[in-house]
Amino acid sequence: MQRHVTVIGGGVIGLASAHALVRAGHCVTLIDAHAEVASETSHANGGQLSYRYVAPLADSGVPRQAIKWLLAGNEAPLKLRPNLDPAQWRWMARFVAACNHHTHQASAAQMLSLALHSQAIMSEWRTRDALGDFAWQQRGKLVIHRDPKSLDKAAAAHVAPQDQQVLDARQCIALEPSLAHQQAHLSGGIFSASDETADCHAFCQALERKLQASGRYTRIANTRVAALSARNGHIEQLELRHLDGRRERHVVEEVVIAAGNHAAELVRPLGIHLPLQPLKGYSLTLALTADTPETAAPRISVTDSARKVVYADLESSASRQLRVAAMVDIGQRERDSFHPELDEQRIAALRKLASDTFPAAGDFAQSTPWAGLRPSTPKGPPILGRPRQANSPDNLWLNVGHGSLGFTLACASGDLIARAISREALPSSLSDSLPDALAARPGR
């Protein structure tokens, strides 16, 4: 049965949800706080579709390692900025509680199942829906290790032996010659041949073009949604606040929250408390030219395990760029959460890390910086489906909390939400890893 679904959020999660819903035969209205899609966290993320590297941040050794990182200055992968917000401390307590082997393994297995489904859905959309060029490449991903113990631990834990190869330093450089400058510092790496890269912003634009051509999609731009309210267990309408000062009521049938960090504020009046924390990350985009030496910048996706920096070659028919992304800042307050501020010290540190690793790629001082707030759950897996709280509205769906894996998990998350709203069977391959909240309400 065709439904009219209102999706709140114009990033990759909201657009993937909208696309999946339209493909399923529904009509969609998407409400976006910005003039252009993908203007927040989806705008300049790491560009990696790391389907086999989706282990959550919470792990048994992280609290101890975090103490070292906190003393490492602006190049540290993680920086904690404590504030007086009780929600931050509740999230951190739950995060620390999740830093154990059992929880990590369970969360990693759930996220891996979701990621592999996402890769299948991405392939289907890319080949069948004529999305156009969004710099998609399947050149594989190489995770380099600078310490032998780190390499041995990673080799023992790799999740897809049929797809992943353990390489020594010489083999890493043969595979990716731009790493030659790092030869003295490399112990080896793990290469996953089937992992991918793409430009998330261009992907979002491609989805919206396809949606607009469908005739079943409307986007309301420059508009924010007031906190939600329900009547008799049902959301009847939304209060829209346009940036030009206008206000209006928008009647709804089904509502999907895909608003990232803003989701918690939207649903709080309904008695729904989402364990989300905005983890701030940074990226650089360096334009590569025809004059860039062939072995100066990586052609395959590279992750520097020790420094927690990712590098992705985003090559389209129109341009070639190197995307560099890194760092997690927890607790930094933003004057405007819709437009996070750049921390110039963190950006300077990231420029130095990139220059040290790939010195011939170009002048990283001229690269374009970016910062985004990644909506993260304490354990790692996103929140998908109906709210768990009793008496929550019967037409409300959640698709939030993807952390740094929004692009990687977006297609699967959108597909599963669309299936649930359509009351279709969910993939049997995911039956052991999906939350009960994805089950459709009976009798609707």
TrEMBL record:
Keywords recorded for this protein, A-Z: Oxidoreductase
Region entry Disordered, spans: 366-390
Pfam family, one: DAO
Keyword Oxidoreductase on entry: yes
SUPFAM superfamilies xrefs: FAD-linked reductases, C-terminal domain, FAD/NAD(P)-binding domain
Keyword match Oxidoreductase: yes
Coiled-coil stretches: none
Ranges for domain FAD dependent oxidoreductase: 5-419
Protein name, per record: FAD-dependent oxidoreductase
Species of the source: Cobetia amphilecti
Family affiliation: Belongs to the DadA oxidoreductase family.
